[in-house]
Each structure stands twice: as structure tokens, then as C-alpha cells.
Amino acid sequence: MNVRLIAVLAVGTMLAGGSAARAQGDPARAFDAATAAIRKPGTTVRIDLIGDSTQTNNAGYGRGFCANFTAQVDCVNMARGGASTGTFRELGLWDRSLATKPDYMVIQFGHNDFVTAEHLPRQVPLPQYIENLKRYVTEARAAKITPVLVTPLTRRYFGTDGKVHSDLQEYSEAMRGVAREMKVPLIELQNESIAYLDKVGEAEGDKLAITKKDTDGKTIFDKTHLDWAGSYVFGRMVAVDLGKAVPSLKKYVRPEAATLPPEGEKAMRIINGGPAMIVLVGDSTVATEGGWGPGFCAVMTKNITCIDDALNGRSTKSFRDEGAWKKALDHKGDYYLIQFGHNDEKTDEKRHTDPETTYAAQIRQYITEARAIGAVPVVLSPLARRTFKDGKPSNDDLRLYANAARRVAEEEDVTFIDLLSLSTAVLAKGTQADADTFNAVGHEDARAEQGKSGIDRTHLDDKGKAVFGRIVADNLVRTRVELGPDVIGVPAQAAAAVPTQAAPTDGK
């Protein structure tokens, strides 16, 4: 991919591109605390997806499922990467789902319940899995919600015989047993997905997959999660089957399979090697001289051209007022990474914004305008400053802006990268002296940031650029999965050192 990466670093979220997708005919929407219990205008039926990563919008069949219903259906994705029947409840996700008051819940678990030799905390033995499912069914019915159970989507484990050999048969049979005993509508996705993959074969099955890195850092196919094409294949399957399992819903299933919206077509071109452009916008902590932008661009393959349009001393307000944002938009990038905050808290009139009002409004406008040119916006919270207090990095002031950025990203359903938390996690592993090994020397903004001190604990040297640029890149592709092949991988030991935030791709 000769992709031109224009880095416009922003304050980010991990929920990508929802409003644009909906405008293009994809009715999927992710959970948003402010609107979840409010039905989409003009809809008559509410369906929620309850499950793990294989149901999510970015790594599962969620968006393809929702796209296959008419506009009368409000389809909301409550699934969470890495969730099992146990952790979905423990994390409060089940109570949150009940509170949205849907008419139907499409419930699928198993991938993360499956007990392996690792005995991870989320894993649930078969008897407990059954009891957990029964409790979900009982509580949904008590809330006047109709539950529908789904046997888990198969992993694409092909054997030498060219057929899929699923490791989820026991959990699938347990799901069937609960459905029979409690008289719950059942969608037989395990067997149907196996039959489909057996028919098309491994090579075609891989075309439905996202990628991941192996232990040597090489890009390989992910045998569990789905790209846009896979989401629309299996999402269609589940939607049609729901219409059969619950006949009253059949009239809401589109008669013809949904086709990919422009965002999906673009993502498939990129994951298959087509060109893309990423633009970074932000302040000096993103810019080439003292920010993470160069480190981010350095880990992109030759298929990506990375342009860093971030500027020293700018806020969300001054970057726009000075015309820098218009210049960045003129690149017509495919992705815009947007990170501000350090200068928004300055008191001067040209730069200052309030986190909950004017800053949030500016971030929302950046998102809207990026989408208007067909680009995918990604919001990032500010990079942490490296000043320690009581033995820990202290960034309470920046956290106000990070929280506002997260809120807007969630409301707009765009990918959010909480760089403040991720960079703080790196710093918290060491001491002030360790953190100072990332300090830039002689940066022009250092005096303004640090007063009379000669120590610059805001901007980055080459080591810092590499460390934090890699963190941004690796977390970006956990949600913008189509860019996975365009990030240069590293051996497992190095990859394990990079902190990550929750993403749809969590799970086996």
C-alpha cells in the first residue's frame, strides 16, 4: 500500500466512525450512556447484541448484523471484547444492558468461557457457563425482554483435511441445551458458520479475517475475528436466522443482503494492500521536533506515507483559528489522529478552552469535519507530562481534558486512544529519574512549559518518540483493524512491553 499517512494527532476514542456509517445506511450504533435508553427516532423495535469480541462492530459480526435490518430497527451493540458469561456481569455490562430496555437480546458467549490450560480468570467451566446463561435468560424475561441464544461463531481452525475443527463444540451444545430446557429461540451459528467455511475453504475464509502478529512480529491471519467482509457475511447469517427463530421479526430483515458502506469498502481496500493516508494533528507533543509523531510514522510500513501536521503551542482553538486545520483537511486524508489539551489549558485568550464546554465542542467539530471529507477521525487524550509528585506522575489538570475527549468520542462513536493513561502507565513503572530519560533538550516550547527550569518533562527525545509512537500505533490497530498489516511488528517480548487499552479484538 503506498499509503500516505498524514498524522493529525488528536484526542482519541476507540469507537470508530459511527455517525458516518449510519448516514451511509449502516444502522449499527455502539453503547453511549447518554442515549442508550433512548430509542432511535422512527424505529419500532430495539435489538441489543450481548456477547464477546465476535459480536462487536470492529472485530465481529455486529455491524453486518445490524446493517441487515430495515430502518425500523434500532440495533445497539453491547458486546465487549474479552467478555465471558462471568465477566460480562462482573464488569457491570449486564446491568447496563438491561437498563437500555431493548425488546430483544441476541446473546452469544463461549469464546472466552472456554477453559484452556492457562485457566484465565474470565474462563468459566461448563456447568457454570450453563448456570450463567440460565440466569441471563431469567433476568431478561423478568425485565420483559425476549432473549435469543446464539451458539458461538466458530474459529477458523482448518485441519489437513481442509475442514474446520472447532474447539467450541461442548459450549455450543451447552447453549443448545439451555435453549431447549428454557424454551428460548436459538440461532445455530456454530454449525452454520462451520458449514459455510467448509464450503468456501481456508483461502476464502482468510479473506473474512483481520490480521494479527505472531511471536516473531510477522503479520498472520486472525482465526477468530472478522474484517468488514466477514462481518457482513456472518452478520447476514445471524440476521436471517433471527427472522426464522422469531417469526415476528422476519419482516424487519432486509430482503437482500446489505452491501458494504463506503467506509467498509475503503477498509477492505486497505487491509488488502491498497493505499491510505493518515494525518496527525495536534500540539508539540505530537509534532516532529518533540512529539511522538515521528515514532508513530517510523513503525508504519512503506505502504503508508505519514504526514505530521501538528504544530508547537497550538490548542484546539488556535490550530483552527490559524488555518492549520484547513491545511490538514486539504490533504484529503483517510485517517486523522487528533490530540490536543496541553495548550488548551493555557490562560491566554487565543488558546484557552474549557474542557467540558469549548474544548469538547472543538473536538466534536474536528470529528464532524473529518467525516465530511470521507475520513475516519481518531481522538487521543494528551500525552502525560513526566513530573512526579509523591513518587507518581501527576497529570490531574490534563485528565480533565482527557475525560472530555473520551466523552465526545463515545458520543460520536469514534476510536479513542487514552494516551494519557497509557503513557502514565509507562512512567509509573519507574522513578522520576527513569522518566527523565525521555526528556527533550532545547525544545523551543520548554521555557513556556517549565518556567525557569532547564528540565523539559513535556517534550520527547528520540527514545521517547519511539516508545510513545509505538504505543499509539499498536493501540490504533486494535480498533482500526484494517491498518494492522501496515504496522511493522516486533517479537513477542517487545510487544508485551507496550501497554494496551481495552479493544474489540480482546479475546483469544
Automatic annotation (TrEMBL):
Give the species: Granulicella mallensis (strain ATCC BAA-1857 / DSM 23137 / MP5ACTX8)
Question: Could you identify this protein by its name?
Answer: Lipolytic protein G-D-S-L family
Record-linked SUPFAM superfamilies: SGNH hydrolase (SSF52266)
Annotated SGNH hydrolase-type esterase domain ranges read: 53-197, 281-464
Question: What Gene3D superfamilies does its record include?
Answer: SGNH hydrolase (3.40.50.1110)
Q: Which InterPro entries match?
A: RhgT-like (IPR037459), SGNH_hydro (IPR013830), SGNH_hydro_sf (IPR036514)
Q: Which GO terms describe its molecular function?
A: hydrolase activity, acting on ester bonds
Arranged from A to Z, the UniProt key words for this protein are:
Hydrolase, Signal
Supply the Pfam families for this chain. Lipase_GDSL_2
> Signal sequence: where?
1-23
Q: Which family does it belong to?
A: Belongs to the 'GDSL' lipolytic enzyme family.
